[in-house]
Amino acid sequence: MEIAICHFCEHHGPSVIFHTRLATESDINTSSQLSTPPATICCTACNPFGNDHPGFTSKEATSNKTTISSNRYTSDIVKNQLQQACFRSLSSEVSPSKEGPIFFSDSGIDIHVISHTFFLKDSSARGFQRWFSVIALANESAVLLKLWNTLVPEMKEIIADLQKMAAEVYKREEEQCSHRMLRSNFHIANVGAARSLQDISGNPAILLKLHVQFSRLILLANCTPIKVKSKVLESTTNKIDDSVATLVRICEEIGPHFKAFARHILKGGSTSISSDDLCFKESCVSALQYLVPVQTTKNFIIVQHTLQTTSQPCLLITNKGRSITCILNNCEGYKKASCIVTRLENILLAEDVSPSFIHKQITNIREQLLFAAKKMQELKNADQQKVLQFFQSFGYDTGDLDIFHHWSLYC
Predict the structure, then answer these.
(1) CA–CA distance, 348 with 262 (Å, rounded to integer)
(2) Structural domains present in the chain
(3) PROSITE patterns of this UniProt entry (predicted)?
């Protein structure tokens, strides 16, 4: 089975952006997936990887299976199948509502497809939106039909995340300069100009994020439910416990630098997660979401194999087996006292407490943070000394104001 994301290009028609598949023994031994690069494509919308990018490869630790994502094809047959599935998913085989899942087959080239079409907001596109699809194709219809209830909810979750990111970018661009007004008053020559998925989503690492998500779908289709469970069907309690446990492990590894770590994350600092284990990456992102104002991955940089050094302040996280290594790279030291940071330290580094208890306490802190952030937004034009005195009356300290200010940007 293969998973792909496709789009309708204003200049080239339906195009496969990239596809993800399970690696074969031949791929692993000979790296054949890198041997036949596609013809040179200058369109950034159709080829956001660029012509020299080999794609992404990940190995799932539990099943020991490897997934590959790229815009290259192992054979002309696979290329034809993907391109035909892409063409039909964005032309004839579309849900009546234009957005939604649909199943279709093509006996001529022996493929069966689940396709989910959707729109992404784009201020430079005709109609201010672009058409995409996520497709899953296999050689047997029974395989896909049995997986419908698993794959479709997962696709919807991926698409909803993309649409949310694109809507945020569109809103921001319209606030800066209304493209609707410009088009109604002037002739704009670059209407429909090609934009990469990175630009539309506002996330430079979106292709890597999709690789991780598509790899999960591939593993869902190739593993028994006991080995790899769908996020949609997982127990909420287990997900919470796993996320909290990972957050506690990260905090324990940070140890004496916890306050600097917490302040870095709470203020929206970047985090680089390096691992071959897909589950570890997802677990780290889920864990650190507790300490950010909105559910987003824009501050997370997921990389392969080795930690990437950078001059920018960044929390570097990697794992080897069950051990976690965390490095605060050029991060601001803990110089201002913070009530929020101290409370988190007392909770996350406490001994003999259950994950459910930690979850409840962090949830309470988040709610208080969001309330304080809204107050900060209301007082943004007030005298800063009076603002400090106001928050100090509720037990907060000078180091909390920077955190409130960052969180107020999302209220």
Answers:
(1) 11
(2) 2-222 (no CATH), 236-408 (3.40.50)
(3) DENN_FLCN_SMCR8
